[in-house]
Design goal:
With about 160 residues, the protein is mainly α. Helix content is about 90%, strand content about 0%. It has a domain at about 5-90. It contains 4 helices and no strands.
Length: about 160
């Protein structure tokens, strides 16, 4: 085969590969959306950044492989890569990965809860002790205040008599 035909075939395969990568990356965004709720603003920002990065990567591939000239068979190759990925994977990847990551996160949070339970108990014990001390100190303060008031009144009476 001619060197030009080999380069065109490699270019076509690279366009298929970039279609696969673009779709795979978007599936990871869908996994994150399934794990954490997103508002419309955040979804719009994510999509804008995703398509901006995709546009730059496709332009870079076109620039590197074909001197920046848009070839329709490259677009067809990217679309074919996307369709191939979606046909083979469908939504199984998103469901499986989101379920696995959710279970891993649940396990990690559960371990953290178990590990931090003594710290939590200690914190609540210290808080209860501090409240107890606060109430006792308030009573002592009131008692001292009463004694000082009585003492002051007694001194005033003694000084007043003289």
């Amino acid at each position: 085969m001619s060197q030009d035909i080999v380069q065109e075939i490699i270019f076509f395969l690279h366009s298929i590969l970039i279609g696969l990568i673009i779709t795979f990356a978007y599936d990871w965004i869908l996994v994150l959306r399934k794990l954490f709720t997103h508002g419309m603003f955040l979804i719009s920002v994510e999509d804008f950044i995703y398509w901006f990065v995709c546009g730059i990567s496709v332009f870079y591939m076109l620039y590197r492989e074909n001197n920046g000239v848009l070839r329709w068979f490259a677009v067809m190759g990217a679309a074919l890569g996307m369709l191939f990925y979606k046909g083979m994977i469908k939504n199984r990847f998103v469901n499986i990965m989101s379920t696995c990551i959710y279970k891993i996160m649940w396990f990690i949070f559960r371990v953290i809860q178990v590990v931090l339970k003594p710290v939590k108990c200690l914190f609540f014990g210290i808080r209860r002790f501090v409240r107890f001390l606060g109430r006792k100190l308030k009573k002592v303060k009131e008692s001292i205040k009463k004694r000082l008031t009585v003492c002051r009144k007694t001194i005033r009476m003694i000084l007043h008599k003289q």
